[in-house]
Amino acid sequence: MSSPDPTTLSSRPLSAQDAFTIHYFASASQYTGRHTEHLRAPLALSQLFPTLEAIYPGIQTVLKSCAVSLAGEYVDLDEEPGRLIGVGDEVAIIPPVSSG
């Protein structure tokens, strides 16, 4: 699957001075075809999943069961909608882990 360039969501080129890093694990990585990428900051936490859906149509089916961490701490997207993901922040998309 070819991944759209996240820099196309804005007219300005993306640089480290205006980006955050997002890490994808397991099924999220498989869906995006990436382990890591940079997205434009700041971004409201409430806009993270809609932004990813715009870049990767259909990813919402994967994201609805995923946990999200911001700066190494799990966050609840519904409880902190106004929180901003800032320049230099690290976000992780973590699908459920099964044991067997």
From TrEMBL:
One of its GO terms (cellular component) is molybdopterin synthase complex. CDD domains: Ubl_MoaD. The keyword Zinc does not apply. Pathway: Cofactor biosynthesis; molybdopterin biosynthesis. Pfam families: ThiS. The modification 1-thioglycine is found at G100. C-terminal thiocarboxylation occurs in 2 steps, it is first acyl-adenylated (-COAMP) via the hesA/moeB/thiF part of UBA4, then thiocarboxylated (-COSH) via the rhodanese domain of UBA4. Acts as a sulfur carrier required for molybdopterin biosynthesis. Component of the molybdopterin synthase complex that catalyzes the conversion of precursor Z into molybdopterin by mediating the incorporation of 2 sulfur atoms into precursor Z to generate a dithiolene group. In the complex, serves as sulfur donor by being thiocarboxylated (-COSH) at its C-terminus by UBA4. After interaction with MOCS2B, the sulfur is then transferred to precursor Z to form molybdopterin. This is Molybdopterin synthase sulfur carrier subunit.
